[in-house]
Amino acid sequence: MILEPVSYKGGVYRHDEILDLIEDLGGYIIQKHIIAQDVILQALIPKTDIDLLRTIARPLAGEVTTAPLVGTEIAVVSMSLEIHHLPHASCDVAEYLRTEGAKTNMIGLARGFGKRIALMNEEERAIINEHDCAVYLLGNFESCIQKKMPVLRRGITVPILVCGAPEREKLMQIIDPPVDGYIGGVGRFMHRTKEAGEIARLDDIVREVAQVLDTKRAAIAKDPLSVSPARLMDVIISEIPDIRYVTSPIPVVVQIDGLRVKLPFDLYAGEIGDIRIEEGIRIASLAAITPSRMRNYILIKIKPFSETGIRV
């Protein structure tokens, strides 16, 4: 069964009918926001049932749209924490990706600035590699980007997308070996993105990220995961009562091939590993459970079917 990421926007009135329908169809609610009298649901549902969801939502004045970034976690990498790299460019990109359903984390490098001194340490690489992909926000000058990219990509195992002021074709020409995605016309700027042309560039980033993540999903589909990350999320939330007391807006973050559980690793990793998904099948037998480099959270990466021989 192929699950498609979608977003539902409608009124609070009778939205519980939409929740029940998604669960009845075998789908999963990734995130729920209630803002005044509006509700926004981010969900994964069977691809064949999207039209049915739209039909049920229409009398409720609800809107169902495909949202390819739902169920993903993206690293937005800024070259430094200085004012000329933060806050505007990084904040605007990160926030715009969130509006399309992604969970984003902003990462400011300690020594990413400067053509001659750009560096990335082991901890920064490890944090970036915990995500589904990384969006690098580079600067305005071709020579600087060309010089820094070999250092900034070293040791990164997730797909990389590069944003810079040069046009897309020029970025493709100066970055060798190639990265997974390019967005031109987005360099350093000292104001919020308000103009139509600037918003269009943010749309370009969303499209490029969606394309890269679709490619990653297609690669995973050739050797499917032993269990769906969304199903694993539901199991953990139902079996670990303490997750309800986590103050983070998203206590369990769904990724394309795993989860980030925002509980202390030392206290809860063993308990999570012992949870039974089905009779005789524990989470520890289907996934690698390791400490995250972010605040000692729990990082779960689901193993493929070829490795476990199990599909639940």
Strands across the major sheet, in which order?
6-5-7-8-9
Distance between the termini: 12 Å
Per CATH, what is the topology of the largest domain?
Rossmann fold
Q: What shape does the CA trace take?
A: globular
Number of domain units:
3
> How many individual β-strands?
15
Helix content: 25-40%
Q: What oligomeric state do the depicted chains represent?
A: single chain
Largest sheet: 5 strands, parallel
Describe this structure in words.
- The structure is a single chain.
- This protein is α/β, with parallel strands linked by helices.
- It folds into 3 domains: 3-66, ACT domain (Alpha-Beta Plaits); 73-220, Response regulator (Rossmann fold), CATH 3.40.50; 229-308.
- It contains 10 helices and 15 strands.
- α3 (88-99) packs across α7.
- The longest helix has 26 residues, at 196-221.
- It is globular.
- The model has no long low-confidence stretch (mean pLDDT 91).
Q: What labels would you give this structure?
A:
312 residues; alpha/beta; Alpha-Beta Plaits; Rossmann fold; five-stranded parallel sheet; 10 helices; 15 strands; 34% helix
Structure, briefly:
The chain is of the alpha/beta class and 312 residues long. It has helices at 15-24, 50-57, 88-99, 122-128, 142-153, 168-174, 196-221, 229-239, 265-273, 305-308, and strands spanning 3-11, 28-35, 38-46, 63-66, 73-78, 103-108, 133-137, 160-164, 181-184, 252-254, 258-261, 276-278, 281-282, 287-291, 298-302.
Give the SSE layout.
Elements: E1 3-11, H1 15-24, E2 28-35, E3 38-46, H2 50-57, E4 63-66, E5 73-78, H3 88-99, E6 103-108, H4 122-128, E7 133-137, H5 142-153, E8 160-164, H6 168-174, E9 181-184, H7 196-221, H8 229-239, E10 252-254, E11 258-261, H9 265-273, E12 276-278, E13 281-282, E14 287-291, E15 298-302, H10 305-308
Parallel strand pairs: 5-6, 5-7, 7-8, 8-9
Antiparallel strand pairs: 1-3, 1-4, 2-3, 10-11, 11-15, 12-13, 14-15
Helix pairs in contact: 3-7
